[in-house]
Amino acid sequence: MRDEAEHMVQPKTDMQARARELRLAGRTYDEIVAELGVSKSSVSLWVRDLPRPARKITEHSRAMAEARWEPLRRARDLQRQETKSAATQEIGRISDRELFIAGVALYWAEGTKSKPHRRSELVTFVNSDPDMISLYLAWLRLLGVENSRLRFHVLIHESADVAAAEHFWAEHVGIGIGSFGKTTLKRHNPKTVRKNVGENYRGCLTVRVLQGADLYRRIEGWWYGIVLGVKPAA
């Protein structure tokens, strides 16, 4: 009688141990039930003290999720493009005065500025966006700044394709690479996870205007004129 009881308990103990192994391996209740042929309530009792396994995302479920979201994503992208296109049409060709105002605001947001603790009336603009550079150069031409007064150099991480970046910026502004100043390399920190990487990363272009003290004072004055122009009348 005792031997018979021990024979019945042993398999149950083995299945309980196996159920715990499967649960620790990340198997669900249904998977354990299917493999061991026991009730779900037994499995729940045996493994209830174990942590719940991380949710598994199978290729099938991933494909189903992608299929479900793809139409919504396409509709959203189409709506985004339509909104941007409509906004572009609202601008059209801009006047010299509009370019003048836009250039002042652009420089005051992105250009170097004199500080109370460090007086420096230099006209230097640094940006990674080619369109920003194009707008800035168009503004300088509007102001009558000669090309001979402009100096360019690239600022980029040393781990990037420096030569490709130099050629890109030289072509973008329409001058020979030999007319650029020495490229400034940012030292790479392996601990930093940079997102500005890949073939589209070209660093920043620095544009400096020689003998720019008088121009800088005018830019500062223009900016404060804009600020005063939007203040309510007293």
TrEMBL record:
Domain of life: Bacteria
Listed name of the protein: Resolvase
